[in-house]
Write a structure and sequence with these properties.
Blueprint lengths: L2 H20 L6 H18 L4 H22 L7 H6 L19 E2 L8 E11 L7 E9 L5 E6 L6 E3 L2 H4 L12 H12 L3 E4 L2 H8 L8 E3 L4 H4 L9 H9 L10 H14 L1 H11 L36
Parallel strand pairs: 2-6, 6-7
Antiparallel strand pairs: 1-4, 2-3, 2-5, 3-4
Helix pairs in contact: 2-3, 9-10
């Protein structure tokens, strides 16, 4: 290529670059969006739009503003112990409960705190299945209602009534069920050292052949303010949930995870009263008395009691 032709092309390129740099930058989408919103605000303020349209625009602008402020604030995830220590009962569902993972065993990703709620499903065994029961499923949730543990349990006795319409348990569920000993060990590890929440909880512990300190139990069926819903007797979990929490459970077959969540919500709803009643029944042990002060040694200038001198015996010659 000739030198003159190269210079000519370079000059053309320079002119093109100059034109490109002189062009004003295209306004950003956010700027256009803000301009559109300010125009809408002006039109709404001037009353140039129908009232229904004005109301819709105001709602949309308010929603966008709240979303923007929410994004600008970096929120730290609240720990389970912080939630448990809070007295806020306005939002009982801190987070939407996760989906039920049936027979998933231990949920390793779920955070555990001081409180866990338990519920069990039973099946009928023996010649009188209406009266004799065996454990068939156990579920535990944490303070937020998140599933901590769920497992089908193999019965040691032949099942004569699956009670499917109530328990939701079917024979095919036992194909992947865990042994009673395995479930006992895992549940015992979860509840040890924690406060256990449940409804008529002694039935669940009896079915699992486990014990738990009474001072670490919060039973929603025995809570005095809740017993008024049954005329002083033992209220049904379904009734308490409907009357006090405002939603329905046990419409069909029961879900032990759902029932455990309802128990935890009932406890949280009146937690202060639960703990007050607990303190009355199980007062804190008195502080140990201080140890008596030891006698200080006598000063050096203080006279000491004279020691009795033994008489020397004379030697006989």
């Amino acid at each position: 290529m000739a030198t003159g032709e190269l210079s000519s092309n370079w000059k053309k390129l320079q002119k093109t670059l100059t034109k490109t740099s002189s062009v004003e930058p295209t306004p950003s989408k956010n700027g256009t969006k803000r301009k559109r919103e300010s125009t809408l605000k002006a039109r709404v303020g001037a009353g140039k739009l129908p009232q229904s349209r004005q109301a819709a625009i105001k709602r949309d602008l308010k929603r966008k503003k709240s979303m923007a402020s929410g994004v600008s604030q970096v929120q730290r995830k609240t720990t389970i112990l912080e939630v448990e220590s809070s007295n806020d009962t306005q939002r009982l569902r801190v987070e939407p409960p996760s989906a039920v993972l049936v027979n998933a065993g231990l949920s390793h990703h779920v955070e555990l705190g001081r409180y866990v709620a338990i519920d069990c499903e039973m099946v009928g065994v023996g010649p009188n299945p209406a009266r004799e029961s065996a454990l068939a499923r156990v579920s535990l949730v944490n303070y937020n209602g998140e599933q901590v543990y769920d497992s089908y349990v193999l019965s040691k006795e032949p099942v004569t009534d699956w009670r499917t319409h109530v328990s939701g348990i079917r024979p095919e569920h036992m194909a992947e069920a865990r042994s009673l000993e395995h479930v006992q060990a895992e549940v015992s590890k979860i509840i040890t050292g924690r406060i256990l929440v449940g409804h008529a909880i002694h039935h669940d512990l009896e079915a699992m052949m486990l014990s738990h300190p009474k001072r670490d139990i919060r039973d929603t069926s025995r809570h005095p303010p809740y017993r008024k819903w049954a005329g002083g007797s033992w209220p049904a979990l379904k009734i308490l949930t409907s009357e006090l929490l405002g939603f329905e459970i046990q419409d069909g077959a029961h879900s032990s995870v759902e029932d455990a969540r309802a128990c935890m919500l009932l406890f949280r709803k009146d937690k202060a009263s639960f703990e007050k009643e607990h303190s009355r029944r199980w007062p804190a042990p008195p502080a140990p008395a201080p140890a008596p002060e030891s006698e200080s040694p006598a000063p050096d200038n203080q006279s000491h009691p004279a020691r009795s001198k033994k008489k020397k015996k004379k030697k006989r010659h």
